[in-house]
């Protein structure tokens, strides 16, 4: 399919590229492709960024049939625009689609659409250290219909947002509240899919944790409330007794692409990484035995978020003296170095936009 | 607050009122009210039904922060327009809002908004037996922002859809597939809230059940997969050994208003109704002992949906010879009679629009 391009005749004024924050500003263009039952995905186009005209009965507004992705484009020093593993995001689109009964997309074409859109808006990519162009592909159900069933029509949309450095003032470890009340997801639910429902479910726990002075929550499994799942909107890793451990994907955990990259990178550098179920009690026991060396989250927004403190039902433990540890620092430096083109990409993770 | 009214200058052609189906046609007007942090809910208005202009970054499209309700208006033979317990729907709006971190609404004002909108579009209310005007209030998060946090802006919208008789060809009991794989919700999640996430989660199970020749699924609890929760988009009741049993609300089940009304009505008529946890095994044991007399679902769309067959992992049982039983028939006749004004409302359930 050819992607038609209609350029804006009224470009926006660019924001202060030194004060971008996250997800607040959007570029001049967006990608849209429609799906109609019987006709398939059609009419891919890059058009000026503008409000969508949505029927108030659009199914996404009522039954949440929607999925999304998040990845970043980086401007390398040599002028190249780099994407980080966009093929993995497009594969996850189809995994999420399958669970939400949304028709699958052509993954290669999805990557092509991202590249063409980023290219059209390439002057929106910030180039200060740590900054990037956040890419948000998403699919929404658009039938104007109030019965509960999968929609017959969808829109696949990509929007772009220039984002600032996540760690402007250094990588200060975060304080994490272990959530014993609310549940994010269980096996048989939507936890492994990148879908709107999981985020809706997380808001209340997040707000309550913030009120108590914590940055994020650590989710426990919804069945026994003892196994560690993920932290806020990130996957989570622990270094215990020289071994790096991350919860295995059991159907309720998002299979993060930064998670996958962290595992691959650490293993290549000779560090033992184990994917298995791990209880919050084991984490606390390891701490009591002096063996919990590091804890950190992984995700697209922050890449790595070191964890300095946990609060589990009032029992507070500090990790690595509240400072970032060497494994987290190494993962951060390596992945961000590859993403920004400052380190050689020996993994074949990056793709050049053009 | 006064509700401003802007009437359409271009009324739609009305659909064939004898072939309405469910949720397909929408009336000439809708109600909208905005929320802005610091300003509260404001600018309530009835305007022509039209597409919403939504920023592609609107939070509802990405993080599913949204809730909805469903109720019906009926045209009584004496010309009155009746609503069925709209105060209960508005109370549930606030219960759902609280879980989704959406600011609460004034419940009385919500009922007033419904009444004014229904009144403006009163010529859309069908009057054939079993038909009604379906009312869909919903709230969506509208901040154009990609960070995961509660929105600072919302829209509360009400749309109306004339709907046909649910049972055009008699109340034929449905076949129900007992779902052992997918999970709708668990305690600590969103199950008790009327929010988009629960419906997104249900689609795949529903499609698979349909492919196997079943109308809906019976959800089991997500923890032990043994307790009965609800059926499809309805609550569920069983008559076992002369007693009517419905699963107790444990945080994962929607507190249905038809469920509440069924319990109140049956108790008033002297039938013992017990709200408690009940396992699927108990249901099958009761059937084996010849004591499972009836099974039926309750919900706004169908009011009562008798169940004639269950399939639990290949074990098929038939209920009441696949026919509707006297309790279900009595509940249906009483509630629909009160809703449509044909029976005296000794409960004080109905409200007259004007």
From TrEMBL, chains A, B:
NCBIfam families referenced in this protein's UniProt entry, alphabetically: ilvE_II, PRK13357.1
PTM N6-(pyridoxal phosphate)lysine: list the residues: 194
**E.C. no:** 2.6.1.42
Query: GO terms for molecular function, please?
Result: L-isoleucine-2-oxoglutarate transaminase activity; L-leucine-2-oxoglutarate transaminase activity; L-valine-2-oxoglutarate transaminase activity
Required cofactor names: pyridoxal 5'-phosphate
The UniProt keywords, alphabetically, are: Amino-acid biosynthesis, Aminotransferase, Branched-chain amino acid biosynthesis, Pyridoxal phosphate, Transferase
Q: What is the lineage of its organism?
A: Bacteria, Bacillati, Bacillota, Clostridia, Eubacteriales
What protein family does this chain belong to?
A: Belongs to the class-IV pyridoxal-phosphate-dependent aminotransferase family.
Q: Which CDD domains match?
A: BCAT_beta_family (cd01557)
Which pathway does the UniProt entry assign to this protein? Amino-acid biosynthesis; L-leucine biosynthesis; L-leucine from 3-methyl-2-oxobutanoate: step 4/4; Amino-acid biosynthesis; L-valine biosynthesis; L-valine from pyruvate: step 4/4; Amino-acid biosynthesis; L-isoleucine biosynthesis; L-isoleucine from 2-oxobutanoate: step 4/4
Q: Which InterPro entries match?
A: Aminotrans_IV, Aminotrans_IV_CS, Aminotransferase-like, B_amino_transII, BCAT-like_C, BCAT-like_N, BCAT_family
Return the protein name: Branched-chain-amino-acid aminotransferase
An example of a Gene Ontology BP annotation on this entry?
L-valine biosynthetic process
Q: Which Pfam families match?
A: Aminotran_4
PANTHER family membership:
BRANCHED-CHAIN-AMINO-ACID AMINOTRANSFERASE, SUBGROUP IIII AMINOTRANSFERASE
Report which reactions are catalysed by this protein.
Answer: L-valine + 2-oxoglutarate = 3-methyl-2-oxobutanoate + L-glutamate; L-isoleucine + 2-oxoglutarate = (S)-3-methyl-2-oxopentanoate + L-glutamate; L-leucine + 2-oxoglutarate = 4-methyl-2-oxopentanoate + L-glutamate
């Amino acid at each position: 399919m050819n992607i038609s391009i209609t350029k804006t005749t009224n470009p926006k004024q660019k924001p202060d590229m030194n004060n971008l924050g996250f997800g607040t500003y959007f570029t001049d263009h967006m990608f849209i492709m429609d799906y109609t039952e019987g006709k398939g995905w059609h009419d891919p186009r890059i058009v000026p960024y503008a409000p969508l005209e949505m029927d108030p009965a659009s199914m996404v507004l009522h039954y949440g049939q929607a999925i999304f992705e998040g990845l970043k484009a980086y401007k390398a020093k040599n002028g190249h625009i780099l994407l980080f593993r966009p093929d993995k995001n497009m594969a996850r689109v189809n995994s999420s689609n399958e669970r939400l009964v949304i028709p699958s997309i052509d993954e290669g074409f999805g990557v092509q659409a991202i590249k063409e859109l980023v290219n059209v808006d390439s002057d929106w990519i910030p180039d200060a250290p740590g900054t990037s162009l956040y890419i948000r592909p998403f699919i929404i159900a658009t039938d104007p219909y109030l019965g509960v069933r999968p929609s017959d029509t969808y829109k696949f949309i990509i929007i772009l947002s220039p984002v600032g450095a996540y760690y402007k003032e250094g990588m200060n470890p975060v304080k994490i509240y272990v959530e014993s009340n609310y549940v994010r997801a269980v096996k048989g639910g939507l936890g492994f899919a990148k879908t709107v429902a999981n985020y809706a479910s997380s808001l209340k726990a997040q707000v309550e944790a913030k009120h108590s002075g914590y940055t994020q929550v650590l989710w426990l499994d919804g069945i026994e409330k003892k196994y560690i799942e993920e932290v806020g909107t990130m996957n989570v890793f622990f270094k215990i007794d020289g071994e790096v451990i991350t919860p295995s994907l059991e159907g309720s955990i998002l299979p993060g692409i930064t998670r996958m990259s962290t595992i691959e990178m650490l293993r290549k550098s000779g560090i033992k990484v184990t994917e298995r179920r791990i209880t919050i009690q084991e984490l606390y026991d390891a701490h009591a035995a002096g063996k919990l060396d590091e804890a950190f989250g992984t995700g697209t927004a922050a890449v790595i978020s070191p964890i300095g403190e946990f609060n589990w039902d009032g029992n507070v433990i500090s990790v690595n003296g509240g400072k970032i540890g060497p494994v987290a620092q190494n993962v951060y430096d390596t992945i961000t170095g590859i993403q920004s083109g400052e380190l050689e990409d020996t993994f074949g993770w990056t793709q050049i936009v053009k």
